[in-house]
Every structure is written in C-alpha cells, then in structure tokens.
Amino acid sequence: MAAKLKNSIVSAFKMHGLTLRSEASRYLVEVLAPVEASEKEQWLDKIIDIVQKQSLASAMVGREECESAVQECNAEQDDDSDSILNVIDAFSVPRFTYVKERKKFIPDANLEKAGPRLHGIPTDKGAMFRDRYTVIHQRTLRNDLFTPPAIGSIEADSNKFQLKPVEYLVGSTSKVGNVLVLGMLVQLKEGKWYIEDPTGHVQLDLSEATFQPGLFTENSFVLAEGWYEDGTFYVEAFGLPPPEKAETTRSYFGNINFFGGPSSIQVKSSNRLAQIEAENTDAMFVLLSDVWLDHPKVMEKLNVLFKGYSDFPPTAFIICGNFLSSPKVLSHAKTLTDCFRDLGNMLSNYPKIVSSSQLIFVPGSNDPGHSTILPRPSIPNSITEAFRKKVPSAVFTSNPCRIQYCTQEIVIFREDIVTKLCRNCVKFPADGNVPVHFAKSLISQAHLCPLPLHVCPVYWAYDCSLRLYPLPDVIVTADKFDPFTTNAVSTTVVNPGSFLRTDFSFKVYYPVSKQVQDSQVLDEVDRTLNNSTIIQSAEVNLSQSAEEDSLNFTASEPMD
Fold first, then answer.
1. 397: left (phi over 0), alpha (psi -120 to 50) or beta
2. pLDDT value of position 174
3. What is the enclosing helix (H) or strand (E) of 51?
4. Residue 543 in 3-state DSSP?
5. Which helix (H) or strand (E) holds 142?
6. H/E stretch holding 124
7. For the segment 120-149, what is each residue's pLDDT rounded down to a tens digit?
8. What is the mean pLDDT of the chain?
9. Cβ distance 127 to 133 under 8 Å?
10. Which of 393, 445, 68 shows the shortest CA–CA distance to 220?
11. HSE-up of residue 224 (Cα within 13 Å, Cβ side)
C-alpha cells in the first residue's frame, strides 16, 4: 500500500515538472497515509500547488519544502479564534526582497540572522530606494500596457510600451525619440530635476511636460515619456506607475503573508475567516483622529460617543493622536498621563465597551515618545499604565500600524501626509480634487510616504512597514485635511479629519459591506426627539465639496 501511494505521489509531482527527493517522498507518504482515500488526491493537489508557489532553486523538491507546504495546508484548517482581530506593530511587519532571477519574493536573509538596526548604516538607505523601485518595476512590467505581445500575435506594436533604463539614454550618442523611462524623481541640484534608477540618472526638462492625474513629489516614482538629446531628457508626458489589484498580486506570489500577523499564510485564503466575516454583519470600526484629551469639549463629546455605543459596542475604536492640543513641553508626559487616567475613569462607566470593543491608540507626531522619524513606536507604558488597569484590552501601537480583521487588511497612518504631498508636489493639479489625486498617488507608489527624507524622515531599515504591497482593503490616513472617503483599485482611502476642528465628526467602517459612513456627535440642541439618538450618521458621498476653511495649496508654497 505504501509503495503504491509513493508511486502516485512521485507521478503527480512529475506531471507538474517537479522531482521529489527520496526523503520528501517518504515524508509525504507518512502524511497522506492516514487520509481517507477519497481526499488523498485533493490534499496532494493542494500540496503541489503550494510547493509550486514557493521560491524553488530548482525542480528538485526536498523534505523542507514539503513540510512547509503541509504546514500551510494545516494553517488553512486551523481554528484559532485569536486570528479574527490582530493589531500588527510596524516593527514586526515581515520584510521580503524581490529576486529578479526567480521572480519571487523571499524573506530577507539578513533579518533571519539578526534584526535590522534602528539607525541603519549607509547601505540601508540605498537598499531602501532599490526595494521601492524593484517593487514598482516588476509590477509595471506585468501591466498589459508593458507586456510584449505573444509570438505570432497580430496585435499592433503601437498598443504596447517598452521601458528603457536610464543607462540606455546616457549611453546614446545621438538623439533618441519616443522613449519611456521609469525612475525616481530627484533634485540633485537646486531647481534642477532628474530621473534616477539603479543604472544612473539624467536631467529632465519639464517645460513642455503634460502631467497626468496625481501628486508628483521628489522621491516619488514616475513614468516619463519624451526624447533625449545632449544629456537632457525632454519630457512630453509625466504619469504615475500603473497600480495593480491585490488579487492580481497574490495570483503571482501565492499565499505569502506580506501583511504580517500570526498567520503563516495570507488570511485571504482562509474560508473559516471569510465565513465569520460574512456572518458578523454588526461589525464596525469607529475612526477618530486628533482626539485632544486635554480639551474639555473633546472629553465631553467622547463621553457622549461612548454612551451612544454603550448598548451596541463596535468591534473597535481606532483613536489617533495627537492626544494633546499643545506642542511638546516638559510637562507633556505628566499631562498626558493624567488625561489617560481620566479617560479610563470615563470608560469604566461603560463596561460593555470595555469588555466587547478593542480600543486601539495610534500616536501622533506631537505625542511623547521618540523622535518624529517613521515608523513611530507606541506611547510609553509609563504614561498609559493607569489607563490599562482600567481598560486591560486596550492596545497602544505604533504609527503606522496594521489591523487584520478576518480576511480584511487595514492600514492606519497618523500623519499630515495629504498636506505634505500637496505642499511638495512639482505641479499642483488644476482641478484641485485633492482626495482623488492623493489616493491615486499613494496606491501607485505602493508606499505611505513617497516624500523626500528631509520632509518626512523614515528609518531606512524599517521602510517596509510603510509599504502598500499587495494593496490593503482600507487605508486610513488621519490628516488635518478635510475628511474624505474615496476608492481606487478596489482599495478604500479614508481620512476621518480632526475630531474637534470638524465639529466632532468621525468615520465608521463596516467590513461586511465595505462601506464608510460619515458620523457626528451632536450637541444637546441638535438632538432629535428620541433622546437615545445622540450620534448622527449618513452614507458617505464620494464627491467632496470644498469648504470655506479648506486648506489651499499651490506649487510655490514652501516645503515643511
């Protein structure tokens, strides 16, 4: 019986162009022998499918690869309820490197030996930009506009584009026309723009360039089309790299868990979590930003908010800083400690929320802690100790952070990133529709902060925690800019706005329908006749109207 099973296993692998080593075939016989005969073929097909998606060095498959595949199969059947909601710290996000020869993402070898340095070495800075470029470059080459037509195809060449490296231009001795380059926009000399890729850099002439939708800033990656002559690339059209849906990305790289969390594979493949998500129709996430705990009016409205949700607690309250209204001073830590103690006393009046809802706190740039370099660690435990005694389930996490709810992936980022992108863009969009241009830019760059390091510093070795690849389901960018909700490439981008400055408005996200509601805590005089109605909600309108107090930007404004 064992010999017959071994032959069938070896034959199945050979049908897929793979050869099993002897120790691997013996291991699979041990694993599949107890399985019912009617299910053996199904399990074997699943194991082969996972093995094919691994980063194989050759067609020879060893025991290690088979063990990893079996573990992934078992993980899909794992019934661990703790995996329903997970908050993932930025410093624990897995780091993968793309290997061009294998066309695979593999875990970073250096991280397996020792964790990265917080303050990295010079090579880390170069690796950071190379990794950003590699992710966008391999994604762009898969786009329909850049894939070469199949051999024998009658498709016209005019429908396809071909990317050229910078070295192709630099090495040319004559005029080169109709060329397309993917590279990073940099300003190597004051007032002079260059495009740079791993092969070199070349100066740009943007005087006649037509800008496509998006916010183009220094250190962002762009597609530049034009002609080259005498050391200058004359740009005719300027655009962002084409984005890619998360489903398409995963179809190429399998069940790799890019997002992080306890699962060994990406949660999208879990049927159990998908079923739980569909059944929990009451799940919702309340999103608030700039919650100033030292402001009496804010504390009053928070009490009203918690009272309104006390009978039907949401899945989580995601509360972003800054948590104090004043800039950093010597007494900042003590003031915030007292404010969190008062918040804990307030929440103790609502035991249902404390026991049923997850309270997640994301720090802002003015909150106590380390410097403003991203990613930013959580608020120190010494400040939150009294609060955590009152609310043991509260989570104080990093900025940015990631939240995995069932099969959905949510990224939370507390930074005035909309404001900074607008102030530092090369040319501000003529239509002024900031939310749409902002969402397109973030998703095309596959990064939360496509800005120069002097505007928004980043720890070089932890840049992967700001990466948006594959695209998550929701990106929450808590910014002082006007609240908005927009969608791009099946990803929802949300800005809840400043809690106090927007008359105590906030956002509510419903995972089951993937809808976002605009909500507001009402004043006493604005309440309806039904005293229980103290929170007003409305379906989101994706077309944002310009308010009188909207932030206005021009390309000539100084950088932060």
1. beta
2. 87
3. helix 37-52
4. coil
5. helix 122-142
6. helix 122-142
7. 888 899 999 999 999 999 999 999 888 776
8. 87
9. no
10. 445
11. 34
Looking at this protein, which amino acid is placed at residue 469? Y
Q: What gap in Å lies between CA 121 and CA 67, rounded to an integer?
A: 36
CB of 328 closer than 8 Å to CB of 366: yes
Strands 192-197 and 200-205: antiparallel
The Cα–Cα gap between 62 and 68 comes to: 10
pLDDT at 70: 86
Higher pLDDT, 390 or 48: 390
Amino acid at 293: L
**Residue 172, Cα to own-chain centre: how many angstroms?**
39
> What distance in Å separates the CA atoms of residue 349 and residue 463, rounded to the nearest whole number?
41
What torsion, rounded to 10 degrees, do the Cα atoms 297, 303, 306, 307 define?
-130
377 DSSP assignment: P
- Segment 344-384, tens digit of pLDDT: 999 999 999 999 999 999 999 999 877 789 999 999 999 99
Amino acid letter at 183? G
Q: How would you write 400-440 as a 3-class SS string? A: CEEEEECCEEEEEEECCHHHHHHHHECCCCCCCCHHHHHHH
Give CA–CA dist 75/71, Å, rounded. Answer: 6
Residue 125, pLDDT score: 93
Integer CA distances (angstroms), 34 to 31, 67, 72, in order: 7, 16, 18
- DSSP code string of 275-296: HHHHH-TT--EEEEB---TT-H
Q: How many CB atoms lie within 10 A of CB 445?
A: 27
pLDDT of residue 77: 59
Angle subtended by helix axes 2-15 and 22-32, to nearest 10: 120
Query: Which residues make Cβ contacts (< 8 Å) with residue 523, sequence separation at least 6?
Result: none
128's tokens: 């950071």
